[in-house]
Design a protein that fits this description.
By secondary structure, this protein is of the alpha/beta class. It is built from 37 helices and 26 strands. The relative contact order is 0.06.
């Protein structure tokens, strides 16, 4: 039996034509020993010596066929056309009449090595390739139709050839992100796992010959990692599209004690491809690494999010089908495990804060935590509320203390209750039931505070005036007490956010701080710590009386005209010009966010006021979506106004006229309480107060002839159902939050100090700290609050947070009692070191050593991370405060970042400063660090 003829494809023909281009100037016939590949084009055009020539290919098995093809070509083809005849007829049979017209006067033999050499434009082949016939044949057959093989220009190495062949055979160029900067396909596990999700990629591999599949699998294992053989075996078995989901399920065998049923179930999913345990572990690790990177991309790309969801949902479906879901609750990737960990976190939070925190740590380690931020927020809120509930019962001692406590502590509870009330955003019923239980428990405690506050409010309101407020900041005194002291430098911008509650203010203040704004407050009295400002509204807490009184600087009632005239008159009496803008005057024309008049006013020296109604209007009309959070972008024109104020260096006062309560109980449109004399949703006139109401009269009551009845329970309303209400006597309605914000780089006025995030946030809201921490010291007169460098202290609690859940056990441990006294802080040790002295030689105008030491010690005390505002406070206690804290940190970086190692730097987009304490010790105290390491490494060695 005659041997099979070699298969000749178009690329082989092109290579032969190019190699014999000189002969083809005089001849037009090429005889090739072989068989033209079925389906290959019989006619095509090539360029030879710069001339385009038409090629006709005929496959003939006999002498007569060859002769007939030649005669047909000579009679019908153009003179420049080339005829290529593939045949198995030998030269002896063809005779000289035919061979004399052919290139080289003979039948050309196809040498795949020569073809490959020519098609790659290489000067030589890797010697190993001559022994691999399958590789040469595959390279000849697989050459891309568009553009051909890449031009090498030197020696074609085996790895380069296999890389090009793999990319073409598997279709890797179609995989998103597979090409590197040089345009070459990156062959790694990431690329191949992404390829497994393409529609036809795995099938292309499965359709290759057995030898080629085996050789490619072997080579890819060497260059792309040991996970690849498992992937390609799955592709061979028709399971390539499920490779990523199956890899995730392989985590079930990480437990050495995995049950036999688990092994059998997993084996049923893998079928005959089931790898050894060690191979599966490697494959699972590779899959998880790839998915971790995909999930990071999914945070900013909807396409990436859909890709991740498809893989994870398929994995969950396979796990459920195989009965593996119960054994994968600890998985870091499966949606079902995320739900299980979410349920556990909320359930454990109901049991105790410590249990909730431990479960929350596991949940935050789940890969989906970054994609399901709203569900993580619900879990974090549950743990926070658990902390607050575990503390001692708070009490209302006075109206002034209660309002301050509400803006700095209890208002954060209201913020948390809004999240708990909304339930699980993912719709899990079990999680929702536990969130509701926590809500009811916390709401009951908050309600007791409202009841006691209302009782004291009724007594206080009977005699309190602007001149004698009994320790309170009242709303009509905000302009004089808070805003007027800010006019010494740039004139302030007063932004009145109608209806902003303490809960909303907490959210807006956080975001403003992340945007670079710095909150400041008046320097507290000796023995007190800085705290956010809060005022008391007029009564009832409605816009008509509270906003007019705020903007007029005195008790008043009326609409926009009253507010405008009162605002102008107040500042005129103080020899300042002022202008107030309401709704229609704020927005600009096409292409401008703000009106021309408003921008002109901001560019002047006038005090500018702007009334923003977004929050109050949302209470009337409701908000779309879950409505659990407020951001700066949610309040119409707020971001644009802050940007304009920043550009002009203006301080900004964010203030409300009253707060609000939300509709949470009733689904009916009818009033929840029938009462005579109802004037609004949350106040009425009448002779007697009913249950959950108080009767209020006095100089602060501007409606109802000076006497009104107000409900203190949030679920009472006298009118139809809306999204929220105001006018009542609850803390959330009567408290007026006041936030004073400085643009980046601006100095605080005299007798004002920063209020960093550590002080504006209650301890139970922040991440729980388990270290033993002494109580914060009071602020001495003449100094802002500073974390003490001599002790590891949690930032001081804001004023008014009495009764909040304690976050640490202040009792010293036995270990602490036995420890020797500290004679020198870490900061002092660092600045006294030889390394620091050497570093200082290269820094012009370096800060004083005591300032750098204070920075180090403050960061160590805070666990390594502080906000820039808190760090500025630490600096001011030991030296001159720098206006540009970022520039100061950059200077200290030059002192501490030895040889570029990141000892000190900004994180969180520049909103926090981080000190790497172990690296600091390694760089500046190498001998001490080595000694400590040696002692730790010999725990059992007896001392002499």
């Amino acid at each position: 039996m005659a041997p099979a003829l070699p298969r000749v494809g178009r690329r082989t023909v092109e290579a032969l034509l190019a190699a014999n281009a000189e002969d083809l100037r005089e001849r037009s016939l090429v005889l090739v020993h072989g068989r033209y590949a079925p389906g290959a084009p019989p006619r095509f055009t090539v360029t030879l010596d710069g001339e385009a020539r038409r090629v006709h290919v005929r496959d003939e098995a006999s002498v007569l066929g060859v002769v007939a093809a030649l005669h047909e070509h000579r009679s019908a083809a153009a003179p420049s056309d080339v005829l290529v005849v593939t045949t198995g007829v030998d030269d002896e049979q063809l005779g000289w009449d035919v061979r004399g017209r052919a290139v080289r006067r003979k039948t050309l033999t196809v040498e795949n090595a020569e073809v490959v050499l020519q098609r790659f434009g290489a000067t030589a082949l890797d010697p190993r390739m001559y022994r691999e016939r399958w590789l040469l044949e595959a390279l000849v057959e697989a050459e891309p139709a568009e553009g051909g093989w890449p031009r090498i220009g030197g020696v074609l190495t085996r790895d380069a050839a296999l890389g090009a062949l793999t990319a073409e055979r598997l279709g890797l160029r179609a995989v998103h992100g597979s090409s590197g900067q040089d345009g070459q396909v990156t062959l790694d596990a990431d690329t191949l796992l992404a390829w497994s999700r393409t529609p036809v990629g795995p099938r292309r591999f499965a359709e290759l010959g057995a030898t080629e599949r085996a050789e490619l699998k072997k080579w890819l294992a060497e260059v792309a990692g040991p996970a690849v053989p498992v992937l390609l075996s799955l592709a061979e078995a028709g399971l390539g599209h499920d490779a990523l989901p199956l890899g995730l399920l392989g985590a079930a065998l990480r437990d050495p004690a995995a049950q036999p049923d688990t092994v059998l179930a997993l084996g049923g999913l893998f079928g005959q491809v089931m790898p050894r345990r060690s191979e599966l572990a490697v494959f699972t690790d590779a899959v998880e690494g790839t998915l971790t990177r995909w999930i990071a991309d999914a945070r900013t790309s909807q396409d990436a999010r859909l890709r991740v969801d498809a893989v994870l949902e398929r994995a969950d479906g396979l796990a459920d089908k195989a009965g593996l879901t119960p054994g994968l609750t600890a998985s870091r990737f499966l949606p079902s495990s995320f739900t299980a960990q979410l349920r556990r976190t909320v359930a454990e939070a109901r049991r105790s804060p410590a249990a909730g925190e431990a479960a929350l740590a596991d949940l935050l380690g789940h890969a989906l935590a970054g994609l399901r931020a709203d569900q993580v927020q619900a879990a974090e809120t549950a743990v926070r509320v658990s902390r607050w509930l575990s503390g001692s019962e708070p009490a209302v001692t006075s109206v002034a203390a209660a309002v301050r406590a509400h803006v700095s502590d209890w208002g954060w509870v209201d913020r948390a209750l809004t999240v708990l009330w909304a339930g699980d955003p993912g719709g899990d019923l079990e999680t929702g039931r536990d969130l509701r239980a926590l809500y009811e428990q916390a709401r009951e405690r908050r309600q007791r505070l409202d009841q006691e506050f209302a009782r004291r409010l009724a007594v206080w309101a009977a005699y309190a005036t602007a001149q004698h407020p009994d320790g309170c900041l009242v709303v009509e005194n905000v302009l004089d007490t808070v805003v007027r002291p800010l006019t010494g430098q740039a004139a302030p911008l007063v932004l009145v956010l109608d209806g902003m509650s303490s809960a909303v203010a907490a959210q807006l203040g956080e975001e403003a701080e992340r945007d670079g704004w710095r909150e400041i407050v008046p320097r507290p009295e000796p023995g007190q710590v800085p705290a956010r400002l809060a005022a008391v509204s007029m009564l009832p807490s409605v816009t008509r009386v509270s906003r007019a009184s705020l903007l007029a600087g005195e008790a008043a009632d009326g609409g926009q005209s009253t507010e405008t005239s009162g605002f102008t008159a107040f500042w005129k009496r103080r020899r300042r010009t002022a202008v107030l803008f309401h709704k229609a005057a704020i927005g600009g024309e096409a292409g401008h966010a703000l009106s021309h008049d408003l921008m002109t006013a901001l560019a002047s020296d006038a005090v500018v006021g702007v009334v923003l109604n977004t929050i109050d209007e949302a209470l009337d009309n409701g908000r779309q979506g879950r409505g659990t959070t407020w951001s700066l972008a949610d309040v119409t024109h707020l971001r644009e106004l802050l940007a304009a104020a920043r550009s002009y260096g203006r301080p900004v006062v964010l203030v409300s006229d009253h707060g609000h309560v939300l509709e949470r109980r009733s689904r009916a449109d009818a009033p929840t309480a029938a009462a005579d004399g109802a004037e609004s949703a949350r106040w009425r006139t009448g002779d007697a107060a009913g249950e959950s109401e108080i009767a209020v009269d006095g100089p602060r009551v501007r409606e109802g002839g000076g006497a009104v009845i107000l409900p203190w329970r949030e679920d009472i309303r006298y009118t139809g159902r809306r999204a929220g209400y105001h006018g009542g006597a609850s803390l959330a309605e009567v408290t007026v939050p006041v936030l004073v914000l400085l643009p980046p780089g601006e100095e605080a006025p005299k007798d004002w100090v920063p209020l960093p995030r550590e002080l504006s946030t209650p301890g139970w809201w922040r991440t729980h700290v388990t270290r033993e921490v002494p109580q914060p010291a009071a602020v001495p007169a003449g100094h802002p609050v500073t974390p003490s460098p001599a002790r590891p202290a949690e930032p001081a609690e804001p004023a008014g947070s009495a009764g909040s859940a304690p976050t640490v056990d202040a009792r010293p441990s036995a270990r602490a009692e036995a420890a020797p006294p500290v004679t020198e802080s870490l900061g002092s040790t660092v600045v006294s070191s030889e390394v620091y002295a050497a570093q200082k030689e290269y820094v012009r105008k370096a800060p004083e050593a005591k300032v750098v030491a204070a920075v180090v010690d403050a960061l160590v005390s805070a666990g390594g991370t502080m906000s820039p505002a808190a760090l500025a406070a630490a600096i001011s206690a030991t030296g001159r405060v720098r206006r540009n804290i970022e520039g100061f940190v950059a200077t200290v970086q030059r002192l501490l970042n030895v040889e570029g190692y990141p000892v000190l730097g900004f994180i969180d987009g520049g909103h926090a400063v981080k000190l790497d304490v172990p690296l600091l010790r390694e760089q500046f105290l190498p001998k001490q660090n080595a000694l400590e390491t040696e002692e730790e490494g010999q725990p059992g060695e007896e001392k002499a």
